[in-house]
């Protein structure tokens, strides 16, 4: 740091403060470089990841020889070359581990977030609230970026405003009637998990016999019951063996897999005649007679392999090669970790896994008359990423440091939420600010007495699902405990010795919960407690969700009731249409420009030609759903 740039008290505060940087990726690299050059000397940085070759185009502290090494340690070494006198401690670890509890966070004057996923953001938000230290939150998405400051009791926390849920699709759409490339890509990822990954019953790839549109199941049973892994049952449905068990019995024979998923199952779907009254029916494929023409491929010497669209015949060959490689990898994992733990995890950067999903997705697209995609396009959609822009990361990292300096200067009242826009506003600015919002009194994280309302079917929802999908999934707890309020009946314990596993598979109604029950939940690691009010769900909403979680009970009422209470003027909803974007670029991103102009002066959205919408939070530098 150049002497005299800051006033002496601020310069002293910067050099003596202890800073925690969470994340050493795209934003983290720029941020670490910035803070050591600004004069920060006592820094700790934590990141679990190792360096991948795909990081090198924007994470400039890393070079080719660093591939495979820990991001945090490599970033530390690079930053010390900028400022040899700095004291930097690096951790290659998960910030959500119990070792990094409240006392760990209390050891810092300031926390700077450079994360790329919602779960870790939620956790760090709660830890900073519990430790009562300022948090500067940030995120980028392509050319868009955002920085904001979170201060307990003074500003909105990261979870004060509900986030858009990860885009999901009805199971019957994925399994029976795909109409967009993303439907086929999701199906192919499910198939990967059924064959080689952690199998999930909710990711079944076989035709859905309970599709409300379907009919003609008797014919379907004849089509699918003679071959493959299914056979007809007296109940009218199809009794199925595990897809993996059937595939293993067949020796992962690609031709048999192809016959099952791209011929027999398609014939079964054709038997559901009501599905095709207003849709173009699919076309079963025969392994021995596959189309060899390509669609939309970039030809010539400059055409990159990733940008070529394979023909169906090429897809079948790629599928065959991938299945052989994945079979060997799966066998190795099973031998090493056992049948329960030994499975593969789909990774967009793992070529056999990517080739498998690309090939299977494109074969299914061809069958359902959907335009096929290149491997590059499939990778982007399956990995749920948008291009990370180095300059966006640099601008946002600079804004983080500016907000941090205001905090250390004792000028928290001057802190702003900063937006980086794609296009200049009428004032010719792409960096615009707005005042920080006060805490949401109905926030189920930072309110004085946090409360949450959960609507679900207590006759079918198990205690295990409640723990995994709601307490850990939606409420982002790490080690939750739960008991029935007023009765002292322990339902869920984070202590393995006290945990009753036999209880976990019972439905909520069987453990004494009913409409209006109150459950006391807490997470010791996060120093987080809340009351959960449970309400019976008799009918699912239009999107098919089997539970709803909100801090505002009014959000649980049926949509029709909401419309009656709303203004007489009708407004078009933004949900419920399947004709929108095939995939949301991030589970936490909306391309919504800020509703204000620069500085403190408030301006109506209409003056800038923007939708009057609440500000959206932007997520990480490499976006993952």
Walk me through the structure:
By secondary structure, the chain is of the alpha/beta class. 32% of the residues lie in helices and 13% in strands. It has 17 helices and 16 strands. The protein has helices at 8-16, 26-38, 71-82, 102-106, 118-131, 171-175, 181-195, 217-225, 243-249, 254-270, 312-341, 351-367, 375-382, 390-408, 463-474, 501-504, 559-565; strands at 18-22, 42-46, 87-91, 110-113, 135-141, 144-150, 230-232, 238-240, 416-420, 431-435, 451-456, 480-484, 489-492, 518-523, 528-536, 547-550. It has an eight-stranded mixed beta sheet with strand order 3-2-1-4-5-6-9-10, with helices on both faces.
Low-confidence stretches: 215-239, 296-302, 559-625
Strand order across the largest sheet: 3-2-1-4-5-6-9-10
Number of strands: 16
| Rough outline | globular
Structural class: alpha/beta
Provide a count of the helices.
17
Distance between the termini: 39 Å
> Residue share in helices?
25-40%
Strand content bin: 5-15%
Largest sheet: 8 strands, mixed
**Overall pLDDT metric:** 81
- Please state the CA-atom Rg, rounded to the nearest Å: 27 Å
Topology overview:
Layout: H1 8-16, E1 18-22, H2 26-38, E2 42-46, H3 71-82, E3 87-91, H4 102-106, E4 110-113, H5 118-131, E5 135-141, E6 144-150, H6 171-175, H7 181-195, H8 217-225, E7 230-232, E8 238-240, H9 243-249, H10 254-270, H11 312-341, H12 351-367, H13 375-382, H14 390-408, E9 416-420, E10 431-435, E11 451-456, H15 463-474, E12 480-484, E13 489-492, H16 501-504, E14 518-523, E15 528-536, E16 547-550, H17 559-565
Parallel strand pairs: 1-2, 1-4, 2-3, 4-5, 11-15
Antiparallel strand pairs: 5-6, 6-9, 7-8, 9-10, 11-16, 12-13, 12-14, 14-15
Helix pairs in contact: 2-3, 2-14, 7-12, 8-10, 11-12, 12-13
